């Protein structure tokens, strides 16, 4: 059992550069874990041979403010499997060349040159934040009673969205847009559960301090194993009793799930668990004047894409 | 911000007898901090009015009838979900 980490450059609280690595082969054994040492704007791994995942890889989202580009696309030749989307992998895509990819531009440019062709026809991969489950990118965070889902729950290409808090008077209950902090909860007579996010809001009661993240793995050979890739969102906060009779209680919203992309020249094991689920909504204690409902909404699920047997 | 509350006891507003039933319930000391539904147009002026609003909300009667019906259909009922109103607006 070992807990491994990837070093993150420019770590800054809930933010850090994307982790980009090239390996000749990759093997994470059962019982071992691997995660960025700090929040990062995604993890992208390129493996020249086979990749085996029997342990658990966890990638949570980062909050980098307003993204320079909210829609990232990257493509690979895949004519032999019938993919015919026309593409050009330019240096402006996938965060490459933008402030979102601060520090990794040289790495990506070098890796880009390894692709069979920088343009042509094939499969385009997207990441960004759309409403709805499995919408092609990361998921929106969940709303809460009287603070329903809106643009504040939007995530980013590398993070699911944050959740709102239960709202009784409109103060600080909204999440920070693009996967930032969840809405603030409160205690007392009006118990409001926190929204999950990067980090969760303050107040009553604890929610997940994370949203789903971005994980991308390209392997020239096979992607084997039966491990887990966890890019899930955190749960919304429970609206609990603190110190006085609770008159009203609304649970907090869960965070949106993340984005997983697995691409292999060979095969991809179906036994690898890819978790991009949004976090569940927070529950609530009993309250004097509301007898049912008022649970926070769950975060929306992110998206998993698997593409095996691509052109080489 | 915590809300200071108090228990108030009043004769049941629906009874018209010499020895009425006494009902006790909790309200914020500052009544303007009592959450209300969107459909409420004016702030109740007496504790009896507040009690009747709570009673109608629970029963889905009075002005709460329409949103009570909608909430049964949509499972949303957001306008029936109380929130503190800025009564100065």
Outline the structure in words.
- The complex is a heterodimer of chains A (312) and B (89).
- The radius of gyration of chain A is 20 Å and the shape is elongated.
- Chain A has 312 residues and is mainly beta.
- Chain A contains 1 helix and 19 strands.
- Chain A has one helix at 105-112; strands spanning 3-6, 19-23, 26-28, 33-36, 43-47, 51-53, 56-58, 71-77, 85-88, 119-130, 138-139, 190-192, 214-219, 223-224, 228-230, 248-250, 259-264, 273-275, 303-307.
- Chain B is built from 2 helices and 2 strands, in the order ββαα.
- A two-stranded antiparallel sheet of chain B has the order 1-2.
- Chain B has helices spanning 47-59, 65-74; strands spanning 5-11, 22-28.
- With 89 residues, chain B is of the alpha+beta class.
- In chain B, 26% of the residues lie in helices and 16% in strands.
- Chain A binds chain B through residues 145-146, 148, 167-171, 186-190, 243-245, 247-248, 250, 288-291, 293-294, and chain B through 1-3, 5, 25-26, 28, 33, 35, 54, 57-58, 75, 77-78, 81-84.
Which two chains form the greatest contact, residue counts included? A-B, 25 and 19 residues
| DSSP E strands of chain A, number | 19
- Residue-averaged pLDDT of chain B: 83
- Class from helix and strand fractions of chain B: alpha+beta
Keywords:
heterodimer; A: 312 residues; mainly beta; 5-stranded parallel beta sheet; 1 helix; elongated; B: 89 residues; alpha+beta; globular
Can you describe this structure in just a few lines?
With 312 residues, chain A is mostly beta strands. In chain A, 3% of the residues lie in helices and 27% in strands. Chain A is elongated and about 65 Å long.
Topology:
The complex is a heterodimer of chains A (312) and B (89).
Chain A: E1 3-6, E2 19-23, E3 26-28, E4 33-36, E5 43-47, E6 51-53, E7 56-58, E8 71-77, E9 85-88, H1 105-112, E10 119-130, E11 138-139, E12 190-192, E13 214-219, E14 223-224, E15 228-230, E16 248-250, E17 259-264, E18 273-275, E19 303-307
Parallel strand pairs in A: 1-4, 2-5, 3-6, 4-7, 5-13, 6-14, 7-15, 10-11, 12-16, 13-17, 15-18, 17-19
Antiparallel strand pairs in A: 8-10, 9-10
Chain B: E1 5-11, E2 22-28, H1 47-59, H2 65-74
């Amino acid at each position: 059992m070992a807990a491994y980490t990837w070093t993150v450059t420019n770590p800054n609280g809930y933010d850090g550069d994307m982790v980009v690595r090239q390996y000749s082969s990759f093997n994470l054994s059962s019982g071992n874990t691997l995660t960025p040492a700090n929040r990062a704007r995604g993890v992208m791994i390129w493996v020249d041979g086979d990749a085996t995942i029997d342990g658990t890889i966890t990638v949570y989202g980062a909050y980098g403010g307003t993204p320079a580009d909210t829609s990232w696309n990257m493509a690979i030749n895949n004519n032999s499997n019938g993919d015919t989307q026309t593409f050009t992998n330019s240096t402006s895509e996938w965060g490459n060349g933008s402030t979102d990819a601060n520090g990794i531009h040289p790495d990506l440019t070098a890796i880009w040159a390894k692709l069979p062709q920088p343009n042509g026809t094939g499969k385009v991969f997207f990441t960004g934040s759309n409403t709805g489950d499995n919408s092609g990118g990361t998921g929106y965070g969940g709303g809460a009673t009287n603070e329903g889902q809106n643009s504040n729950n939007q995530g980013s290409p590398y993070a699911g969205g944050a959740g709102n808090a239960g709202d009784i008077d409109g103060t600080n209950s909204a999440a920070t847009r693009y996967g930032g902090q969840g809405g603030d909860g409160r205690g007392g007579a009006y118990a409001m559960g926190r929204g999950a996010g990067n980090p969760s809001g303050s107040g009553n009661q604890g929610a997940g301090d994370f949203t789903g993240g971005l994980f991308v793995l390209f392997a020239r050979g096979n992607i084997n194993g039966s491990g887990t890739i966890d890019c899930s969102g955190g749960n919304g906060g429970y609206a609990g009793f603190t110190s006085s009779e609770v008159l009203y209680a609304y649970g907090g919203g869960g965070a949106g799930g993340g984005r997983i992309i697995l691409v292999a020249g060979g095969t991809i094991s179906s036994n690898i668990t890819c978790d991009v689920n949004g976090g569940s909504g927070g529950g609530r204690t009993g309250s004097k004047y509301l007898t049912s409902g008022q649970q926070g909404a769950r975060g929306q699920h992110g998206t998993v894409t698997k593409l095996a047997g691509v052109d080489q | 911000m915590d809300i200071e509350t108090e228990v108030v006891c009043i004769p049941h507003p629906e009874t018209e007898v010499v020895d009425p039933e006494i009902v006790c319930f909790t309200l914020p000391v500052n009544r303007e901090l009592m959450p209300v539904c969107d459909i409420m147009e004016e702030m109740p002026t007496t504790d009896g009015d507040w009690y009747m609003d709570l009673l109608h909300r629970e029963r889905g009667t009075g002005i709460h009838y329409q949103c009570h019906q909608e909430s049964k259909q949509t499972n949303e009922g957001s306008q029936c979900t109380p929130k503190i109103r800025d009564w100065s607006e």
